[in-house]
Amino acid sequence: MATSSTPPSPVLKKPIKLACVQLASGGDKAANLAHARDKVLEAASVGANLVVLPECFNSPYGCDYFPSYAESLLPSPPSREQSPSFHALSSMAAEAKVFLVGGSIPEAEGEEGAKKYYNTSLTFGPDGALLASHRKVHLFDIDIPGKITFRESDVLTAGNKLTLVDLPGYGRIAVAICYDVRFPELAMIAARRGAFVLIYPGAFNLTTGPLHWRLQGQARAMDNQCYVALCSPARDMSATYHAWGHSLIVDPMAQVVVEAEESETIVSWELDSAKIEETRKNIPITSQRRFDVYPDVNEGKIRFDEPNVPK
Ligand SMILES: NC(=O)CCC(=O)C(=O)O
């Protein structure tokens, strides 16, 4: 007995070329922003119309850095003084005429002495307008003795909503950040609400990267029969955090169609609705779900606001 509703079709009105910019960033924010601009323009020059930057692309990644690099994004739009990164991203999206998932940046909210910090991804349209903001929902707190201990929650506050973004003329994407990829629930709800691609700016490390990065991307694509993109910073062995790199794009059959090594590069792929539809037709799990057996999953009690733009 099939009890599910099938996601809206077609999920992607026309093909879109997605590029992940595996950016090399350092400690100089202005230089990082200028370099990101060059790379976004380079991606656009080879035909990309949806470009993704990595997690914390404007700063080094680490709890010690979040407060000093944080920018205030509210009220939206922020002034140039409040958020140079917001304005740089908006300008590069407009200059390159692309949809831009602007990796993530450390965000500060609140008064001095009572500030909260978030890991936040901003998505802009080809006219430079902000389309959505995602605050990392699942903070990266892990402890693998002798390998890696990381506690984002020592500094950061978690976001509390799923982020879906409608790209006019194309369809719906979902944006989440790095550790969020480990939570299939978020991905499943995004896909069931019509996202054709799940996009994760991320920065896995040299312990979990080789073990799980590819698997997580493939698992989310296989479960949801949609595209998945993971975009990492380039590896810098002189930094305090060593990113895995290996930015990649996975197709709806869970095949990794492009994958970077560890150094700075751009990987791209054309996303096509036909591949999603073919996968869902050939392996029809979207219509075979048994929500009568697992009704709590169907309730989808996660908070969801649309449009997902900061007030
Ligand atoms: N920046 C992150 O959220 C890292 C996540 C990660 O490395 C993992 O294994 O998960």
From TrEMBL:
<protein>
    <recommendedName>
        <fullName>CN hydrolase domain-containing protein</fullName>
    </recommendedName>
</protein>
<dbReference type="Pfam" id="PF00795">
    <property type="entry name" value="CN_hydrolase"/>
</dbReference>
<dbReference type="InterPro" id="IPR001110">
    <property type="entry name" value="UPF0012_CS"/>
</dbReference>
<keyword id="KW-0378">Hydrolase</keyword>
<dbReference type="InterPro" id="IPR045254">
    <property type="entry name" value="Nit1/2_C-N_Hydrolase"/>
</dbReference>
<dbReference type="InterPro" id="IPR003010">
    <property type="entry name" value="C-N_Hydrolase"/>
</dbReference>
<dbReference type="GO" id="GO:0050152">
    <property type="term" value="F:omega-amidase activity"/>
</dbReference>
<comment type="similarity">
    <text>Belongs to the carbon-nitrogen hydrolase superfamily. NIT1/NIT2 family.</text>
</comment>
<dbReference type="GO" id="GO:0006528">
    <property type="term" value="P:asparagine metabolic process"/>
</dbReference>
<dbReference type="GO" id="GO:0006541">
    <property type="term" value="P:glutamine metabolic process"/>
</dbReference>
<dbReference type="GO" id="GO:0005739">
    <property type="term" value="C:mitochondrion"/>
</dbReference>
<dbReference type="GO" id="GO:0006107">
    <property type="term" value="P:oxaloacetate metabolic process"/>
</dbReference>
<feature type="domain" description="CN hydrolase">
    <location>
        <begin position="16"/>
        <end position="273"/>
    </location>
</feature>
<dbReference type="InterPro" id="IPR036526">
    <property type="entry name" value="C-N_Hydrolase_sf"/>
</dbReference>
